Amino acid sequence: MADILRAQSPFSGRLPVTAGPFKAVEVIPGSVMSVAPYRGQQAAVSKALSHHGLRFPDAGEAVEAAHAAALWTGLDECFVISDAPLPLNLDGIAAVTDQTDGWGWLRLTGAGWQEVMARLCPVDPALMVPGRALRSEVGHMMAIVYGVTDGVIVCVMRSFAGTMAHDISVALTSVAAQKEME
Amino acid sequence: MRLTCPLCGPRDVREFSYRGDAVLTDRPTTPEGFHDYVHIRENPAGPHDELWHHGAGCGGWLKVRRDTVTHEVLSVALAREARS
């Protein structure tokens, strides 16, 4: 019998990459839901999300709970990411789509990771701190960027994963080589 | 050039696309008004209201008042809020 089909993650075979102090590894959230409140329904959406310790984030904000987070992803839109799918109960108050397979997530860590991000993204890396989620370009791709305690998570559309892995590899290898020479 | 997006803060111009004169948000209600709406534009040397799309950021449409002589950006607002 033919080999059965196997699901591959977006960065499968492309990450991790390491050089010097830097490491880029893939992160695979259990569930990613795009939540876009209908006009005037943002407070109602926040109330529904409060059952999971979340609320609709302000612009540029990441609201984190124990096993879930709500990341601001643009005008009137956020991503609810969680270890397992959550019953969101947003019928009639928000447009919700399952994005779990649609985006690739990578975590960049290592002392000086800000220098790597500065090569790729026009936003000041000092703004990439826990509790913040921002939209910008990373390597000319539209991305979601949010801070974690030891680095940063960059999320791009799945179809960009190959380019993203290439760009982050080139940037972190280059910065690591320069640090080596210092 | 930088624009200060009301949602994202100050951002490099590479994240934005110019989308034309802000008169585009005032769609006429009569067929007669459409000729001017589509074809007639002011070309001021000085302050000018224009639309920019923050495509690589929040996705919002912005109404930007910019001095066409000095390129000074005088104000930036979400287009949907600037209309009402």
Automatic annotation (TrEMBL), chain A:
<protein>
    <submittedName>
        <fullName>Sarcosine oxidase subunit gamma</fullName>
        <ecNumber>1.5.3.1</ecNumber>
    </submittedName>
</protein>
<dbReference type="GO" id="GO:0008115">
    <property type="term" value="F:sarcosine oxidase activity"/>
</dbReference>
<dbReference type="InterPro" id="IPR027266">
    <property type="entry name" value="TrmE/GcvT-like"/>
</dbReference>
<keyword id="KW-0560">Oxidoreductase</keyword>
Automatic annotation (TrEMBL), chain B:
<protein>
    <submittedName>
        <fullName>Sarcosine oxidase subunit delta</fullName>
        <ecNumber>1.5.3.1</ecNumber>
    </submittedName>
</protein>
<dbReference type="InterPro" id="IPR006279">
    <property type="entry name" value="SoxD"/>
</dbReference>
<dbReference type="GO" id="GO:0008115">
    <property type="term" value="F:sarcosine oxidase activity"/>
</dbReference>
<dbReference type="Pfam" id="PF04267">
    <property type="entry name" value="SoxD"/>
</dbReference>
<keyword id="KW-0560">Oxidoreductase</keyword>
<dbReference type="GO" id="GO:0046653">
    <property type="term" value="P:tetrahydrofolate metabolic process"/>
</dbReference>
<dbReference type="InterPro" id="IPR038561">
    <property type="entry name" value="SoxD_sf"/>
</dbReference>
